[in-house]
Design brief:
heterodimer, A: mainly alpha, D-Maltodextrin-Binding Protein, domain 2, 2 domains, two-stranded antiparallel sheet, elongated, B: alpha/beta, Rossmann fold, six-stranded mixed beta sheet, four-stranded antiparallel beta sheet, 9 helices, 10 strands, globular
């Protein structure tokens, strides 16, 4: 029995080693995928964080709020600030045209009298609150609007998340200046009511930061693991690559059926299971080699390109258990597809599409937390989702064996289920 | 089962799922030990179905089969030990060498170590393949592939050998070598059940033949006897055409 299994393993290994195109698809393509996806996402982060969103700014207000927003945008790392186009001060029309032409992602127009409108609003509010008529109101009431319309031109290609960031920043600036004006008005009113009271400086409120935010990434282990494109992409695309083993595996099974080898093997005093076990052993090892290679990409090669080093967490046993369970699940899926498919084309098309589908719903392409609720419920049926959530436990949350054991068990149950389906389909097909 | 028969088939029938007509209909046949038995028939006559049932590829719908005293229904694994099959298709792995293919199939028959190596060496030498044995099968000629395909079915010295068109698509030299070594195998005690469309080859190679059509045997006997019994026939091909008529088959 052992000799037969070893012979099957040797046969499968030789066939695999001599299929150079197949080998490259198993090892080189996933490496390239990880490089490309990580670099793209890292670059996207840098566009936002380092280079900033290209913004053209038109300050028609020429007063406190306009200057405060201008100063805020200039100093913000979110933006690459411009108030002129081709050396000419930007106007509302030229800014709109520049954004339409794609020269800027966002154009911000602060209307004339914006600060004065806020002052008027605040003054009214203060008067109502203190019930006094002594506060001076705007000299030219008719020329000042009660509301402020800040126009934002947006290039249609701009991501919604970028736009949300800009809007939030503007709201923060407006809110800040409004608060300052309100504080000053209150202070002035109080000074009139209580003349001996020492005046509070105009910007005292702004200097007092009462609430501070500290971002700490929650981690189960020792130390903090900082999420970045490498931490997210390496496990996700490694799982994707491991499941893509369905293509060569299903292909080899269909080829054996069509070339007559399976016919011959069915007439031999050997269990067909030996042949399948030979395949499982070889392809599980291939999956684990893929995994090791992809980790080495994250640990060694991506840092050479200036990307962060992959942090594999604190639990090597956890990594071994989860990667093995993922390898078995991927191999079982390949055996099932190879048993169901009747032609190599069927195996290739159904195999690749099913992996794409399972990866999409499993959160490989888009994180499940941004999916609609229905899709989030569906995503839990994808084995790629179990593997991914397990690796996130290890690589992002610093979890250990106990944190990935449920995902690993699910993956092994998936392996057993796919092998059972393969066995049933094989029996049905032979029952001619 | 008498002492001289190695295969006994009684009322064998096979209807494939979804098929309107049975592929094999109530077929009964006895094959003697050490015979070279030819199962001849036009396309779709039921030859391959019969052989596939005999070598355990799929079960019959009804009927009884015993091979060397073993019941097909109860002792399939035992039958597989003593049976060799050479399929019509080249059932080899093209990216493996001839030797690697034989090594794998030899192991699947339960052979191992020096015994397996010696057998592979002998058969490769017999079939003139020693020099090519470490080349990949994908680079072999049709005749060479056919010879390796044959060796893979006889490595374990089977008592019964099923040959499905073993010489199809090969040149005269390869066919001659194959037929000669099959005769040698037969002399050493292997019973051969052979299907072919080469009537001339069957006439000279087989000790007895059966002509099968529409799933049943329509005549059996030695080639000479069949030729003599059918008036106006000078060879087995004439007999075949006379009994199966000249209409084209699917």
């Amino acid at each position: 029995m052992i000799e037969k299994l070893l012979a099957a393993i040797k046969k499968e290994t030789l066939i695999l080693l001599r299929d150079r195109v197949g080998l490259s698809s198993l090892f080189i393509m996933p490496m390239v995928l990880i490089f490309v996806m990580t670099l793209i996402q890292d670059s996207a982060f840098k566009t936002l964080n380092e280079k900033g969103i290209l913004i053209v700014f038109v300050n028609n207000d020429k007063d406190s709020m306009g200057y405060a927003i201008e100063q805020g945008l200039r100093s913000s790392s979110l933006c690459s600030f411009h108030d002129s186009i081709n050396g000419v001060p930007a106007t509302e029309e030229s800014a709109k045209k520049a954004v339409t032409d794609g020269k800027f992602l966002v154009g911000v127009i602060i209307p004339k009298g914006a600060t004065q409108a806020i002052r008027n609003n605040v003054t009214k509010l203060v008067q109502q609150t203190l019930n006094t008529d002594s506060v001076p109101v705007a000299s030219d009431k008719s020329s000042v609007k009660d509301s402020v319309d800040i126009t934002i031109f947006v290039d249609p290609i701009t991501k919604k998340s970028f736009l949300t960031s800009v809007s939030s920043t503007l709201r923060e600036f407006v809110s800040n200046i409004k608060t300052k004006i309100m504080f000053k008005t209150f202070a002035d009113q109080l000074a009139e009511i209580i003349p001996d009271k020492k005046k509070t400086p105009y910007n005292a409120f702004g200097q007092t930061q009462i609430i501070k935010f500290s971002e700490v990434y929650a981690s189960k282990g020792f130390g903090e693991i900082v999420p970045n494109s490498v931490q997210h992409n390496v496990p996700a695309w490694t799982i994707f690559a491991m499941f893509f083993i369905v293509l060569p595996l299903a292909g080899s099974m269909v080829k054996e059926k069509n070339e007559g080898s399976v016919f011959r093997l069915h007439t031999m005093p050997s269990s067909f299971l030996i042949l399948i076990n030979g395949k499982i052993v070889v392809y599980v090892i291939v999956c684990l080699l893929q995994f090791a290679l992809m980790l080495s990409v994250g640990l060694v090669f991506l840092p050479m390109l200036g990307l962060p080093v992959l942090d594999i967490g604190n639990s090597i046993p956890g990594v071994l258990i989860l990667s093995s369970a993922t390898a078995f699940a991927a191999t079982g899926f390949g055996v099932m597809m190879g048993t169901i498919a009747n032609t190599e084309q069927q195996g290739a098309i159904t195999g690749s599409l099913s992996v794409l589908l399972l990866s999409a719903i499993g959160g490989i392409w888009v994180p499940t937390y941004v999916m609609p609720e229905v899709m989030r419920h569906i995503s839990v049926v994808s084995p790629l989702n179990w593997a991914l959530s397990g690796f996130y436990e290890l690589f992002l949350r610093g979890g250990g064996v106990k944190d990935i054991i449920i995902d690993s068990v699910k993956l092994m149950i998936f392996f057993v289920a796919t092998m059972s389906v393969a066995s049933i389909v094989n029996r049905i097909k032979r029952k001619v | 089962m008498n002492n001289d028969s190695i295969i006994e088939i009684k009322n064998l029938s096979k209807t494939f799922i979804g098929a309107f007509e049975p592929a094999v209909k109530n077929l009964s046949l006895t094959i003697q030990r050490n015979e070279i038995f030819g199962l001849l028939g036009p396309n779709g006559a039921g030859k391959t179905t019969t052989i596939s049932i005999l070598c355990g590829l799929f079960p019959p719908t009804s009927g009884q089969v015993t091979i060397n005293g073993l019941n097909l229904h109860n002792d399939l694994e035992g039958i597989k030990q003593i049976v060799g099959v050479v399929p019509q298709d080249i059932a080899l792995y093209p990216t493996l060498t001839g030797r690697e293919n034989l090594n794998f199939y030899g192991h699947m028959y339960g052979l191992k170590g020096k015994q397996l190596k010696d057998k592979i060496d002998v058969w490769l030498s017999n079939f003139g393949l020693t020099e090519a044995s470490n080349r990949r099968v994908s680079g072999y000629s049709g005749g060479m592939k056919r010879r390796v395909n044959l060796i893979a079915g006889i490595l374990h010295s089977p008592k019964v050998l099923f040959l499905d068109e073993p010489t199809v698509g090969v040149d005269v030299q390869s066919r001659n070598v194959i037929i000669e070594y099959l005769k040698e195998l037969n002399r050493q005690g292997t019973t051969i059940i052979y299907t072919s469309h080469h009537m001339d080859e069957a006439e000279h190679f087989c000790s007895r033949v059966a002509i099968i059509d529409n799933g049943n045997i329509i005549i059996e006997g030695s080639p000479k006897q069949l030729v003599n019994d059918n008036e106006g026939c000078s060879n087995l091909e004439n007999v075949f055409l006379k009994l199966t008529n000249k209409a084209l088959r699917d």
